Amino acid sequence: MFKKIVIFGVGLIGGSVSLALKKLPHPPHITGVGRSDHSLQEALGLGLIDTAETNIANALTDADLVLIAAPVAQTPAILRTIQPHLSANTIITDAGSTKSDVMSYAKAELGSQFNQFVGGHPIAGAEKSGPSAAMADLYIGKNVILTPDAATDADAVKRVAALWQACGAVVSNMSPQAHDRVFAAVSHLPHLLAFALVEDLAKRDNAELLFKFAASGFRDFTRIAGSHPEMWRDIALANKQALLEELNTYQQAVSEMTVLLENNDDAGLFALFEHASRARNEWAKSKTNKT
Amino acid sequence: MFKKIVIFGVGLIGGSVSLALKKLPHPPHITGVGRSDHSLQEALGLGLIDTAETNIANALTDADLVLIAAPVAQTPAILRTIQPHLSANTIITDAGSTKSDVMSYAKAELGSQFNQFVGGHPIAGAEKSGPSAAMADLYIGKNVILTPDAATDADAVKRVAALWQACGAVVSNMSPQAHDRVFAAVSHLPHLLAFALVEDLAKRDNAELLFKFAASGFRDFTRIAGSHPEMWRDIALANKQALLEELNTYQQAVSEMTVLLENNDDAGLFALFEHASRARNEWAKSKTNKT
């Protein structure tokens, strides 16, 4: 395991890694680096980090792992900042929700040390963010995807996998491109659709009346529309191509459903709803106690 | 309060009314009528009804309230069946999710007794259905909307309101048309969008991989896609015009969001997500402990 870990961005994601590792018999020393002194002091106060550091050279001294858990748009700048201070033994990983862009950033910024970078994506989250949202059990039973390149050091991949397994996660490997296509479909698309629905209603003259009678179905459908706007702007732009394809495919699916309704096609609507409902309930059964 | 209530369709909605009323000091006698003998026997076994009846004349003898809580497509047939047996003192109400259609059915089938019919819609539900899903506290704090016509007997409206209040609900009145427009937006549209998303993914060649990595955001967004297909086919067709308008408006909203993404309009995407996220979180705060 690692002896000194430097976390950039001690919020829900980074802070939860820290809390999980602190339960190990020999926890690593954890240094937090962040944009906001307020967040760092909060993370220190909550015991998420052992040291708060603003000097990058000091932070990276003897670090054997750097975890970048800041909003993904900051990743290139962070990589650029740390590159001059990286030893040959420091592994770098991230927790960003998009991976093709991050792998390109790492290749561009880390140069000959690109082989020390392991792209990662923990499939865990909550609508809350910030240090106070961190939980030691956030990753238990959750999927973490690593996206190594042909150049990536195999030992580095194994050690990052071991880190996440120590947090209770189940680790899979995938290419960055395959990762981004999968998450455009199952995560990024639903987020954008939920934002669009809430905005569609919120900007109407009768929004107050509509929201008064919105109930549990609306609540669950729109929960992810309460997510962090900056993070989702960054994800949408970072995974633009795959997401545009998904938006296009989805709008076609909605148009086909709309035609069934226009034609009073009761058998067609029933078949669509019945198939979707069966697929959704089978999925939920397969995931019981897993998500 | 009522002395004898006849419930058509003793599932989640009708069964939960029954369980709530059974907590009153002087609960009414409750007779269940249903399509399926199996459901009726199950309802009897669970104590949801006092009597199971297949003979409509017997069921309606001395009934002072008939509650139609069957799938909404059955409402005209039920009204036709009960009409010959209605006394001048029997109030008829329903629990359907659409109201313009139900009010028209009632006008057509009940003739001179249309004034005894009070359209109603309890805003409560769950993805489970059937007698075993019934809960005594389902309606506590929930909205129930009544949609009286100019012809509707005012005392009947008051008595149906009192019934729902006895179940713990908050009762509002609205025109059938206004009701259907509101629920097309806040309920029927999200249901259709969730069905469409699950179906869009479920029919792909890599559905298994996609579902493996779908997590909590997908789970909540698609919970309502696990809903009863027959019920949602009926709702969609019954509220066709309002729903087609909503689908059209939503597709425009998604297209506008897509243009922001195509143009890399980071400020535009941020503004949309930020506004939606604020509206959604304020809504959730206003609803705490209410939904």
Automatic annotation (TrEMBL), chains A, B:
UniProt-listed Pfam families: PDH_C, PDH_N
Biological or metabolic pathway of the protein: Amino-acid biosynthesis; L-tyrosine biosynthesis; (4-hydroxyphenyl)pyruvate from prephenate (NAD(+) route): step 1/1
Reactions accelerated catalytically: prephenate + NAD(+) = 3-(4-hydroxyphenyl)pyruvate + CO2 + NADH
InterPro entries the record matches: 6-PGluconate_DH-like_C_sf, NAD(P)-bd_dom_sf, PDH_C, PDH_N, Preph/Arog_dehydrog, Prephen_DH
Principal EC category: oxidoreductase
GO molecular function, one term: prephenate dehydrogenase (NADP+) activity
GO BP, sorted A to Z: tyrosine biosynthetic process
Keywords carried by this UniProt record: Amino-acid biosynthesis, Aromatic amino acid biosynthesis, NAD, Oxidoreductase, Tyrosine biosynthesis
Family per similarity comment: Belongs to the prephenate/arogenate dehydrogenase family.
Prephenate/arogenate dehydrogenase domain sequence ranges: 3-291
Its EC number(s): 1.3.1.12
Name under which the protein is recorded: prephenate dehydrogenase
Classification via PROSITE patterns: PDH_ADH
Gene3D superfamilies: 6-phosphogluconate dehydrogenase C-terminal like domain (1.10.3660.10), NAD(P)-binding Rossmann-like Domain (3.40.50.720)
